[in-house]
Amino acid sequence: MRHVIALDVGGTGMKAALAGADGTLLYEARRPTGRERGPEAVVASILDFAEELRDTGLRRFGAPAAAAGVAVPGIVDDTQGIAVYAANLGWRDIPLRDLLSERLGGAPVALGHDVRTGGLAEGRIGAGRGADRFLFVPLGTGIAGAIGIEGRIEAGAHGSAGEIGHIVVRPGGPACGCGQRGCLETLASAAAVGRAWAAACDDPQATAADAAKAVESGDVRARAVWQDAVAALADGLVTSLTLLDPHTLIIGGGLAEAGDTLFEPLREAVRERVTFQRLPLIVPAALGDAAGCLGAGLLAWDLLSTEVTA
Q1: Which helix (H) or strand (E) holds 234?
Q2: Confidence class for position 24, pLDDT limits 50, 70, 90
Q3: Which of 23, 58, 101, 260 lies 20 to 30 Å (CA to CA) from residue 249?
Q4: What is the distance between the alpha carbons of residues 37 and 23, in angstroms, rounded to a whole number?
Q5: 237 phi and psi angles, rounded to 5 deg
Q6: Which of 79, 22, 71 is nearest to 50 (CA)?
Q7: Is residue 136 within 8 Å of 250, Cβ to Cβ?
Q8: Residues 242, 246, 250, CA angle at the centre, nearest 5°?
Q9: Helix or strand or coil: residue 102?
Q10: Alpha carbon distances (Å) from 246 to 22, 138, 263
C-alpha cells in the first residue's frame, strides 16, 4: 500500500503516523524528543524515529514510505528545508529536510512549521473545510496563527506570517520573550491564564483548566482572570481579522478545551469590538492534538503531487 510518513515534533514529544492517500492513519506512534540531552540528541531522536517508521511501513506494506512530512516548532525555512531556530528544542539552522531524506534512503521530505501544518489540516479536513479564507489560532504555551488561503497556508516573506501572539494588546504590560511588553500571548495563552489563576488563588500548581472549572463554579476571582484574558484575546483577534478578513476563525489549543466557557464570552467580546469589519464564524478546532500529524501527512502527499505535476 502506498503511504507516507507524517511526523509532528513538539517541545517534549513526537507524534507520528503512516498515512494513506485518503488521509487514513494506518499506524500511529509516539516518542519523547529527548530535549533534556541537548539539540543534537533531539535531531538524532527525530532521525531514528523516522527510520523506525520507514522500517515499519516496509514490514507492513511491503514498500517504504513514498515521502515524509515533518512539522517542527520555531522558525522554519520550509523552502530550504531548514529548522532555523526553536527555543524549546535549543537548535539553530538544522538542515532537517536533507538529513531526513538521507536517513530515509532518498525519499522526498517536506518540512513545515507546526502551527501552519496544523492549520493546513484544520483548513482542509477539519473545522475550516469549505472556507477559502480562515485563520487558525491555537492557544497553548504561546499563541500563533495559521493564515489559510484557498487550500494553502501563507508562510510570509520570511517564514513568520501569523505570529499574532506578538501583537501588543496591552502596551507596557507583561514582558514577553520576544522583547516587547504586553504581547497577546503574555495575557491570553493557556500558559498565561494558568499563571494568572495560580497567582489569584495562591496555588502555584493551578492551570488554565483549573481556572475554567473555577469560572464554571462561579468563583469571582476566576471570572476576573478569565474576563481579562478574553478581553485581551478579543483585542488581538479583531486586529487580526481587520488585516486578514477571514470567513472562519478557528480557535484550538489547550484553552479551547474549555468549550462554551471560552467561546460564548469570546464571540460576544469580538462582536462588541467590530465596527466596519465582517464578523467571521468563530469555531473550535476539530482535530485536537492530531492536527499537526495529519497536516504533516498532507504536506507529504502535496510534495508527491507537485513532483508528479512537475
Answers
A1: helix 220-244
A2: confident
A3: 23
A4: 34
A5: -70, -35
A6: 71
A7: yes
A8: 110
A9: helix
A10: 27, 16, 18
- pTM for the structure as a whole: 0.90
Contacts of 58 (CB under 8 A, 6+ apart): 64
User: Which pLDDT score is estimated for 160?
Assistant: 82
Query: Three-class SS of residue 260?
Result: helix
What lies within 8 Å, CB to CB, of 309 at 6+ separation is none
Place of cell 494506518: 26
For residue 229, give every residue at least 6 positions away whose Cβ sits within 8 Å of its Cβ, in sequence order, or none.
187, 188, 192, 193, 196
Bridge-based pairing state of the strands 82-86 and 91-94? antiparallel
Distances (CA, A) of 264 to 25, 142, 155, 190, 273: 33, 22, 30, 17, 15
DSSP string, 22-84: TS-EEEEEEEE--GGG-HHHHHHHHHHHHHHHHHHHHHHHSS--S-EEEEESSEEETTTTEEE
Q: How many beta carbons lie within 10 A of that of residue 273, not counting itself?
A: 17
Are 142 and 183 a contacting pair, CB within 8 Å? Answer: no
Residue 238, all three cell numbers: 479583531
**C-alpha cell of residue 197:** 489563576
C-alpha cell at 190: 493557556
Question: Any idea which of 2-11, 200-209, 233-242 has the lowest mean pLDDT?
Answer: 2-11
Q: How far apart are CA 100 and CA 89, in angstroms?
A: 17
Q: What does the pLDDT look like over 200-219, one tens digit per residue? A: 999 999 999 999 999 999 99
Q: How far apart are CA 272 and CA 269, in angstroms?
A: 5
Closest to 69 in 3D by CA, of 143, 135, 3:
3
Q: Is the dihedral of CA 119, 178, 91, 161 positive or negative?
A: positive
- Reported as a single tens digit per residue, the pLDDT across 53-75 is 999 999 999 999 999 999 998 88
